[in-house]
Structure formats: structure tokens, C-alpha cells
Amino acid sequence: SYRSVSIPPQVRQYVVQVVFSVTFAFSCTMFELIIFEILGVLNSTSRYFHWKLNLYVILLVLIFVVPFYIGYFVVSNIRLLQRQRLLFSCVVWFTFMYFFWKLGDPFPILSPKHGILSIEQLISRVGVIGVTLMALLSGFGAVNCPYTYMSYFLRNVTDSDILALERRLLQTMDMIVSKKKRIAMTRRQMYQRGEEQNKQTGFWGMIKSVTSSPSGSENLSVIQQEVDALEELSRQLFLETVDLQATKERIEYSKTFQGKYFNFLGYFFSIYCVWKIFMVKFWSQHISFILVGIIIVTSIRGLLITLTKFFYAISSSKSSNVIVLVLAQIMGMYFVSSVLLMRMSMPLEYRTIVTEVLGELQFNFYHRWFDVIFLVSALSSILFLYLAHKQAPEKHMTL
Amino acid sequence: MASLDRVKVLVLGDSGVGKSSVVHLLCQNQVLGNPSWTVGCSVDVRVHDYREGTPEEKTYYIELWDVGGSVGSASSVKSTRAVFYNFVNGIILVHDLTNKKSSQNLYPWSLEALSKDSSPTGIIVSNGDYDREQFAENSVPLLLIGTKFDQIPENKRNDVLTRTAFLSEDFNAEEINLDCTNPRYLAAGSSNAVKLSRFFDKVETSVKIKCMQSFTDRRRFNFKSLHND
To answer: Which run of H or E residues covers position A258?
Structure first.
């Protein structure tokens, strides 16, 4: 299904839009340069120059610009610190740099001959964060993608299931309405009675006010509790209905031509992913490189779609700036590490440029680290999806 | 089925414009202390004295249905929230005066609600595009509420008010601009309070007309069926 990826309208700060776009642009340029490398486009010296330039800009953005602005916008949201925004943003940035530097200690990512201010220091750390992210997402994606698209797993949802849930939802809303009307009516009566009581003075007025029952307010709190419980129920029913509708749409989609095509791809990629999990290397490096290329393109698209959905789900007008910047940071680190990892799948003759540009990092570490995190993420996702799948049919069987 | 005494008004608008705060202000006469994300639909009840001070005075309990979400939501979310759009007697469109996009999104919002309405006086929109004539024919009373009025700097106020005047003309609706954290904007006797009262009176009048129509339709049907026997 076609979904457009765009920056939501709530982000009105120009600088946030610019930072996100620059990060995305320079990240994509890196992939472009790899393709140029293989196809032999441009002079090799100019390719090298562009690699270096691109890398410096990306590192500048990911380590200085984006973290600083994240700190700035977070601080701006906190009223107490708003007066001295710049000062506190710098404090936040230095804290980030401290932990960022400390990241180098537990991992054997550098050989000792690198100086303290070399570019390898920065890339290696960005690489660790990005590779961890990539492995987590790939592990989850490798399990979730076949689960989502393969019709074998799609629960059977009929129109009557959805109608029944909708009826329950509306009944719950009607109950909430009638209880709130009772509350409003009772409050009004209490208010009017209160006025009348104020008019009653003297001896008989005092007797009347003692004998009249104050049960009005007690009733109210009981009804209010019932309303709260019903409102929670209505939210759950709403989310369940949305879930059923989405499943029904996925079933309908799977019957279309596009759906069948993706279903086939799902089987194909699930076999490839299972193979990857068991690390069997029979295929030639060229084929694996093409497959990796396809995975990267679809995962970029998938990543951006997921980030957009995530953004819509959690954004509010206050935090949208921070969220977009965090997403830019994740995206940039993700892309830099893709380049690092791609080296593994590239044919030998093209690996040299990556090694030349990125310096002598301990690439093997990154590959092993990726595999470990990928395995952990994939197995956890299988467990998580198994539990979710088991739980869901029982919920709907009680209708 | 719409019962004689049910009056249902939808409150629509983008997320974050302040619909929950507006509804809370209208129903509880209080400022909402901790606004949080609306999942699905939240309902509240406003007590309204129809034609106060006249012999026709009647107390109505108006249901305000605050439907959460955005115009760009997934189609599964849109199909689900369509169940809330049935038997609507009035619509309050809420937009954020500091956010132009939220005002523009009111067009798709109103189309979404009015085209899903299954009661016969709702308009049917076939191509999804905005058409001013259809809004002129629309019999469901609309009201525009602009929020965060206090956050507009003095020099921009005229531009914003011109823009909202165009909006109210397009929707054939009255407009109220306020700040949800300040109940003074809806104080009794203010022009905003009068507009609000007029809107709810219109809503209840249209409810009465609908009930009488369905009553006469039923009588005609019974008359016809008697004739056919």
C-alpha cells in the first residue's frame, strides 16, 4: 500500500525541518556513493573526496548539531530552565559527549595507534550505537515482516465480528452518556436545593437542613467511579475495533495482486532471513550484495514509515520538535552503520574504498556485534509475537 | 434510534488544538487542569436551558462527543471512528488559531463527519472535495471555535481574525475565538456566550423539527398501510 512520508504539520520550527532534511540528504548520499563505487561512476579521486566530505558533514551533524538542538528544545519545554536555555543546552550537550566518549571503553573498537582527535574515534562510537539499532530493528523486522504479510498468520476476521464490537462500543458510550446526564441532573438539583436551603432561616429552617439527606454527593462519587471504568472500557473497545479493521484491510489487501506479490516476497525473504539467522554462506557475494541492497532500500522506506507512525502516535505540539530531532539522530546513525556493515556483503574489490575512508576500524567486531544483537532481537521478537498471537484469538472468542 | 430527548453534538478538530479543554469548559464551567491524549471518543454533557425565560423553556442535556485523532489517520482508525458520526444534531469545529494547518483541516473533518452521517438530513458528498454550495444546503448546525487566542501577538490579530471570518463564511457558521485556560471568554452575557446559546438553540430546534418530521412520516406510513389493507 502506498503511504507518503512527510514531515507532519505540527513541526513549525524551520531549523528542525532543515536539520532533519540535511541528515536525510547526506545519509542517502552515502548510499549513492557506494553505488557509484560499484558502477565506476565519477573519477576515483573525486569519489574519495566526496566520501570524506560527506562523512565529515554527517559526523558534524550527528555529534554536534542534532544533540545540541535536542537539548535546546527539551530545555525549552521545561519552564524552570527556560530563562537560561543556551546555558542548560550546553550542559546537556557536554553530558551527552561524556557518555558518548565513555562508549569507547567497553568495546574493542579501536587499535591503539589512533590519536585521540582522529576521526576514527567518532565513527567508531557512532558505529556502535547505529549497529545496535540496526541489529535490533533487523531482528524484529526479520520476524515481523513474514508474520505481517504472510496470509498463513492472518487471523480470520469477518464483518460480523467488527459489527459486534462496534455495537458494544456504542452501547458503552450510551451508558457513559446516561450516567453523565444523571450526574449533571443531580448536581443541578443540589445547586437549586442549596439556593432554597439558603433562603430557609429561623428555627424550622435549621431543623429542615438537619433532616434533609446529604446523599446527593455520595451518589455522585459512586456514579463517577462507574463512569471512569466505562470510559476505560470504551477506550479498549475502540482500540480493539481499530485492530480488527486493520486486520480485515490486510486480509483484503492480501487478495489483491500487489498483496499476493508481497506475500510471495514475504515467503522468499523469510527464508533468506532464516538463512541469515543460521549464517550459512553458500551464495556468492555479488548476489548477497544485491539482496542486501534491496533490504536496505525497503528498510529505509520501512524505517521512515515506522518513524512517521511512531511520531503521529506520540507527538504533541510541545514535544514534536524533540521527537523529529531524535528521529533524525536515529536515522543518521542507522545509515552510517549500514555503510559499515555493508562492507561485509560487498565484493572484495569494493571494500577497499570503505576501509580507506572509514579508517582502520575493527570491522570484525561490528559484524560479530551485529550478529549477536540480531539473534537476540529476532528470538525475543519471535517470543513476543507468539505470546501476542496466542492471546488475541481468545480475546475475540469471548464476544 | 434517535430518541426524543437526545441531542448529540460532535466536537471535531486536529489533535492538540484543545477540543478536550473546550468540552470541559463548556460542560463543567471549569478549566481543564491536565489535558491528555484522547483515545477514541470522550463524551460530556452540557446542561442547556432552551429559550430561557419564555413559556417554551425546557432543559436539555446536550451530549458533546469529542472524537480524537487527525485527518491523516490510518483508514482503520477512520472506519472505526465513523460509528460516532451517526444521528448528529450539530457539529462544533475546533481549530488552533496559531496553527493554520489545523484550520485548513476543518474542511476534511467536516466532510468526513457529514458524509458518514446516516440520518436522512445529512448531506451525501460523493467526490470528497469541498463544495461551498453543499455547505449552504447543509442542515446540521455548525459552530467554529478558535483556541489559543491569547497566544497570538497583537500585530497578527487582524490577519487571524480575517482568516477566521473567511472560514465562518465558508462553513456558514458562527465563530468564537477564545483561550481555554480563561473562563472569562465565555462569561454570561458576553457576545461569545450569546453565540454559544444561539448555536445550541438552533441545534435543539433542528432536533424538534426532525422529531416532528419522523412523527408525520410515521403517521403517513400508518395511513398508507391502512389504505392498502
So the answer is: helix A257-278
Q: Is the pLDDT of residue B130 over 70?
A: no
The residue written with cell numbers 458494544 in the block is A168
pLDDT at A158: 81
> B169: closest CA among B140, B203, B194, B135?
B135
pLDDT at B200: 87
Confirm or reject contact between A168 and chain B (CB < 8 A).
no
Q: CB-CB: which of A183, A235, A312 is closest to B39?
A: A235
Please name the residues in contact with B182: beta carbons below 8 A apart, sequence gap of 6 or more: B31, B150
CB B128 within 8 A of CB B71: no
- Decide if A252 touches B, using CB distance below 8 A: no
Q: How far apart (Å, rounded) are the C-alpha atoms in residues A350 and A34?
A: 9
Match domain B6-118+128-225 to its CATH number in 3.40.50.300, 3.30.750.24, 3.40.1550.10, 3.20.20.330.
Answer: 3.40.50.300
Q: DSSP letters along B73-106, please?
A: --HHHHHHHGGGGTT--EEEEEEETT-HHHHHTH
pTM assigned to the model: 0.65
Residues in chain B closer than 8 A to A169 (CB atoms): 40, 83
Residue A242 sits at the chain B interface (C-beta within 8 Å)? yes
Q: Between A196 and A154, name the one with better pLDDT.
A: A154
Residue pair A324/A15 in contact by the 8 Å Cβ criterion = no
For an interface test with B, the pick among A172, A236, A245 (most B C-beta atoms closer than 10 Å) comes out as A245
For chain B, what is the radius of gyration of the CA atoms? 18
Nearest by CB: A10 against B16, B42, B79: B16
Q: Does B214 touch chain A (CB under 8 A)?
A: no
* Domain range summary for chain A, segments of one domain joined by +: 9-149+283-391, 159-197+216-252
Q: How far apart are CA A321 and CA A89, in angstroms?
A: 15
How many Å apart are CA A29 and CA A348, to the nearest integer? 22
**Range of weakest confidence among A15-19, A176-180, A249-253, A371-375:** A249-253
Residues on chain A touching B34 (C-beta within 8 angstroms): none
Pairing of strands B41-50, B7-12: unpaired
